[in-house]
Design goal:
There is one protein chain. This protein has 310 residues and is of the alpha+beta class. Helices cover 37% and strands 19% of the residues. It has three domains: 19-88; 95-195, Cupredoxins -  blue copper proteins (Immunoglobulin-like, Sandwich), CATH 2.60.40.420; 217-307, Immunoglobulin-like (Sandwich), CATH 2.60.40.420. It has six helices and twelve strands. Strands 3-2-1-5-8 form a five-stranded mixed sheet. α4 crosses α6 (295-307). The chain binds heme C and copper (II) ion. This is Cytochrome aa3 subunit 2. One of its GO terms (cellular component) is membrane. Keywords: Copper, Electron transport, Heme, Iron, Membrane, Metal-binding, Oxidoreductase, Respiratory chain, Transmembrane, Transmembrane helix, Transport.
């Protein structure tokens, strides 16, 4: 049922790929079935009452009206409480990932207590290992929501909300900001990417390095355009321009599956379109449209960014 790595992932609470989501799905199915059985039973009871002469009334009132609801609700309450504890309980060997919501993108830092490896717009998770997501916001309230992995958690300015998740199936799962945060709130998606632990370790290893050097002449030209056009005022490309954090880290931007926070396929055409006309693609984004760049410069900088895949 889960989509393969490489495709755009599902955004559905019915495709469970994390422990929290599995509990929630299991409870939903159980309660739906139990509710359905009780509904049919009530229909049957009404039909029988129609034909009955009124005998055995006390038994029905005490049994069906008092004992049955108490027992059923107590069982469902116990199961929900158990599920809630399983979801919220402390876990061992946690990895910390800090995700900060911005209008309209996600800053992602792996292990902020230690080495602080920065990336954006994709959240990688190792399968089978608990991860504590430290959720923050830099401007307004956002909400972090990947239905296949876990329930929503708000990101509130000045606060850190923690959500512990464990991915259970390799795959890509779509997430979406679930709290209205401005004009382009609907264009603020992302992907959670669950990898086998070895692949996750490789990913973290790659994040430590500098960006790939430009190889083709056009890519070299693109790197110059990137610096001369002033992009480093907001964007970091490790080894080329460091320090700025107003926009997403672009060190491995070409390696993302999507552009613009989970919105468009990452390819040369979309990159060039984005740079020249971001205000049309994502109104209100904190990046100006570079519609004054010449055609060759625009192609070069797009080609350079596309080559930055790790
Ligand atoms: C004033 C700050 C600012 C400047 C200058 C700027 N950007 Fe951006 N850029 C942003 C912000 C903010 C975003 C995130 C927009 C969003 O998705 O809401 C962004 C997003 C991007 C993305 C998409 C990243 C992703 O992960 O999908 C690319 C590519 C990009 N910028 C390239 C450039 C290039 C090339 C230049 C220079 C020609 C540039 N930017 C100049 C702020 C800036
Ligand atoms: Cu939002």
């Amino acid at each position: 049922m889960n989509s393969e790595l490489g495709e755009f992932g599902a955004q559905s609470a019915l495709v469970a790929a994390g422990q929290n989501a599995e509990w929630a799905l299991w409870l939903t199915v159980l309660m739906t079935i139990a509710g359905g059985v009780i509904f049919l039973f009530v229909l049957w009871a009404i039909a029988s009452a129609w034909r009955s002469d009124g005998g055995g009334r006390t038994w029905w009132i005490v049994g069906g009206g008092v004992i049955f609801p108490i027992v059923t609700l107590a069982v469902l309450f116990a199961l929900s409480t158990f599920a809630l504890r399983a979801i919220a309980g402390p876990q061992d060997e946690e990895l910390v990932i800090e995700v900060t919501g911005h209008q309209y993108w996600w800053d992602v830092v792996y292990d902020p207590e230690g080495v602080a490896l920065r990336d954006a717009n994709e959240v990688f998770l190792p399968v089978g290992r608990p991860v504590t997501l430290r959720l923050k916001s830099d401007d307004v309230i956002h909400s972090f929501w990947v239905p296949s992995i876990a329930g929503k958690m708000d990101m509130i300015p000045g606060r850190v909300n923690e959500l512990t998740v464990t991915a259970t199936e390799v795959g890509r799962y779509r997430g979406q900001c679930a709290e209205f945060c401005g004009l382009s709130h609907p264009l603020m998606s992302f992907e959670a990417v669950a990898l086998e632990p070895e692949a996750f370790a490789t990913f973290l290893g790659n994040l430590q390095g500098e960006a790939r050097d430009p190889v083709r002449p056009q890519e070299r030209q693109g790197q110059e355009v990137f610096v001369e056009a002033g992009c480093p005022a907001c964007h970091t490309i490790r080894g080329v321009a460091e320090g700025a954090q107003i926009g997403p880290d672009l060190t491995r931007v070409g390696g993302r599956a999507s552009l613009g926070a989970g919105m468009w396929e990452m390819n040369l055409g979309n990159l060039a379109g984005w740079i020249s006309d971001v205000q049309d693609m994502k109104p209100g984004a904190e990046m100006p449209s570079y519609n004054h760049l010449s055609g060759p410069d625009l192609r070069a900088v797009a080609a350079y960014l596309e080559s930055l895949s790790q």
